[in-house]
């Protein structure tokens, strides 16, 4: 048997698809995947190592992402693409194969900000914002997490009080993606009526943004801290359809669903880098791929990649059928991110010393996935969600 050609990526990818997951996809789904994959190859891969190294988010790609049809991808109407959950998942996978920061932009802007406006906003709010956001002309961020309220959003301190017909917003938010480049923020705050959501222009007087840096993870992305010093908002800034935490939690579940797929993109890219290197690298007179220990690493990585990818497809089908539950989303997020980190780390070992160079993706994916593991619910939070599902008892307090 002849060794595989390390330069034939499609053949390596086909060999890794041992379960034949590709055959589970429709022609339309594969077309979406291939279009996003081509975009990643042409517009993200050539620059991502430099962007990561310089901690730069490539904002020039935002209109291109809009043209690609991945902003608010599953939303219907208002100029949004209206694609299926599986198609969105495949797009998330391919984008994160490029970099977690790019997929995170699509998730924060499309699932969290646009999804909140679509789900809880007035017709006027939807007409005003969603068409421009779907084209990438207006960028939105999502303000829920606070310096002292991360995994426990019910403890948020931000408060909006009524003053006549207006609202006065005070408080702060932390780890808010995109805020320094966004034109609007969907902000959740306590009120006398419970937690409510607001559309807040980022240029409003009293709205301050500071970028959180330097970072060792998600460097080709933007995370910020927000401060609200008596920010005055008109009555029509309120998202009237959301009361309590059910609104932001619904948006978070949309973002978590995308992570189930996206993590497998980072894992797949890491596997491919490791396999190609092992086939090229000659040690002790033969390719590294010919040694038993290397083959065990490759097999273990592909086992988890295949299982995680199959899980993502299954959950996508359930989401399209309207049967996917929050506990199932927690299971997918917990498993796939955890396994993706293990895959990226193991892939780095196969690349040896060269594995720490940014020209090779596994070290970047491993660093990024540490952030993905934390945001949209830590391992601990998703473990307790699943524990509550199994036992019927909440262990959060």
UniProtKB/TrEMBL annotation:
Acyl-CoA dehydrogenase/oxidase N-terminal domain segment(s): 26-137
Signal sequence coordinates: none
Keywords annotated in UniProt: FAD, Flavoprotein, Oxidoreductase, Transit peptide
Location of the Acyl-CoA dehydrogenase/oxidase C-terminal domain: 249-390
Record carries keyword Iron: no
UniProt keyword Signal present: no
Domain of life of the organism encoding this protein: Bacteria
This enzyme's EC code(s): 1.3.8.6
Known pathway: Amino-acid metabolism; tryptophan metabolism; Amino-acid metabolism; lysine degradation
Name recorded for this polypeptide: glutaryl-CoA dehydrogenase (ETF)
Organism per entry: Microbacterium deminutum
């Amino acid at each position: 048997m002849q060794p595989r050609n390390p330069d034939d990526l499609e053949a390596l990818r086909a060999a890794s698809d041992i379960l034949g997951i590709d055959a589970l996809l429709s022609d339309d789904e594969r077309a979406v995947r291939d279009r996003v994959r081509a975009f990643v190859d042409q517009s993200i891969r050539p620059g991502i190592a430099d962007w990561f190294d310089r901690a730069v988010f490539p904002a020039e790609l935002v209109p291109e992402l809009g043209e690609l049809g991945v902003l608010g991808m599953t939303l219907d109407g208002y100029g949004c693409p209206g694609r299926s959950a599986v198609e969105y998942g495949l797009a998330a996978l391919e984008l994160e194969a490029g970099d977690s920061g790019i997929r995170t932009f699509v998730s924060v802007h499309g699932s969290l900000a646009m999804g909140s406006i679509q789900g809880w906003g007035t017709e006027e709010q939807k007409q005003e914002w969603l068409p421009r956001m779907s084209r990438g002309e207006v960028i939105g961020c999502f303000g829920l997490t606070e310096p002292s309220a991360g995994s426990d959003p019910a403890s948020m301190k931000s408060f909006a009080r009524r003053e006549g017909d207006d609202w006065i917003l005070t408080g702060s938010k932390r780890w808010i993606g995109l805020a320094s480049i966004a034109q609007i923020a969907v902000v959740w705050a306590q009120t006398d009526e419970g937690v409510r959501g607001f559309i807040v222009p980022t240029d409003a007087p009293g709205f301050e943004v500071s970028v959180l840096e330097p970072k060792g993870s998600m460097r080709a992305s933007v995370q910020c801290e927000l401060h609200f010093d008596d920010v005055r908002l008109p009555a029509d800034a309120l998202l009237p359809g959301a009361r309590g935490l059910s609104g932001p939690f619904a948006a978070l579940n949309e973002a978590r669903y995308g992570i189930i797929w996206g993590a497998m993109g980072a894992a797949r890219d890491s596997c491919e880098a490791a396999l190609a290197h092992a086939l090229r690298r000659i040690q002790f007179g033969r390719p590294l791929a010919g040694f038993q220990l290397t083959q065990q690493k490759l097999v273990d990585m592909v086992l988890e990649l295949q299982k995680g990818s199959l899980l993502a497809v299954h959950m996508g089908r359930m989401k399209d059928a309207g049967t996917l539950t929050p506990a199932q989303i927690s299971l997918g997020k917990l498993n796939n991110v955890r396994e993706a980190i293990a895959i990226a780390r193991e892939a780095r070992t196969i690349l040896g010393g060269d594995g720490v160079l940014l020209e090779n993706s596994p070290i970047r994916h491993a660093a990024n996935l540490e952030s993905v593991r934390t945001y949209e619910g830590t391992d601990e939070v998703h473990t307790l969600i699943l524990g509550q599902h199994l036992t019927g008892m909440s262990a959060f307090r």
